[in-house]
Design goal:
8 helices, Rossmann fold, alpha/beta
């Protein structure tokens, strides 16, 4: 009897959690999204143009910063968050203690943003800042998942007027921005959330390599 009860208990144990028949809808949705995320990352790993562009962005940023320039960053919504995130990694630290790297997100000054938006229009909120703060030898990182955000495109044009290096982060197509940038990192995905995931992953890689080049560890 004891052995039969133990056997019965074992036979009643739940099947593995990855059995789709036993997943509730929320768990299934989570697993499906993580599969999509993994596929997007695999696509980036296999995309030689994406990898080469990351490396060229590192070179361009290092040249800018070694020459005494700074990095300005702009984007809307989640891309504004990415701009601030990247600026923070440069200005504070990423992997280890070192001197700060000059970087400014143009998405944080509410007084400036609302003044420009009110007086000139929302499409000018970044370009006015680029014209005021940007100099020859600086770099602009312009982030737009579609590559078509009007205020980001105007920032790109303003950066070109200031003879800055223009680096774009976009989605697969590149939109209108790709042709206007010196370097355009096109994330190999079409879904905005997946594009944003690839942007911040690439940004961490780029920040880490810039950090290592400027401040090599002994």
């Amino acid at each position: 009897m004891g052995s039969r009860r133990r056997f019965a208990g074992l036979s009643a144990a739940p099947r593995p959690a990855d059995n789709a028949a036993m997943q509730d809808p929320a768990t299934a949705a989570i697993a499906a999204y993580l599969d999509q995320s993994r596929e997007a990352l695999a696509a980036a790993c296999a995309d030689t143009a994406f990898l080469a562009t990351c490396a060229r962005i590192v070179d361009r940023l290092v040249a800018c910063l070694e020459g005494g320039g700074k990095v300005l960053l702009a984007g809307n919504g989640g891309s504004a968050g990415d701009a601030q995130h990247i600026a923070g990694e440069f200005l504070c630290r990423l992997n280890y203690d070192r001197a700060p790297i000059a970087a400014v997100a143009l998405t944080t000054d509410s007084s400036t943003l609302t003044a420009i938006g009110n007086d000139y229009g929302y499409e000018h909120v970044f370009s006015r800042q680029v014209l005021g703060l940007g100099r020859d030898g600086d770099a602009l990182i312009a982030i737009s998942t579609s590559g078509r955000s009007p205020n980001v495109l105007r920032a790109v044009e303003a950066a070109r007027q200031r003879r800055m290096a223009v680096i774009g982060f976009t989605g697969r197509s590149g939109g209108d921005m790709a042709a206007r940038c010196d370097l355009c990192l096109r994330a190999p995905a079409d879904s905005t959330p997946l594009v944003q995931q690839l942007h911040i992953t690439a940004a961490h890689i780029i920040c880490g390599l810039v950090e290592a080049r400027l401040f090599p560890r002994g």
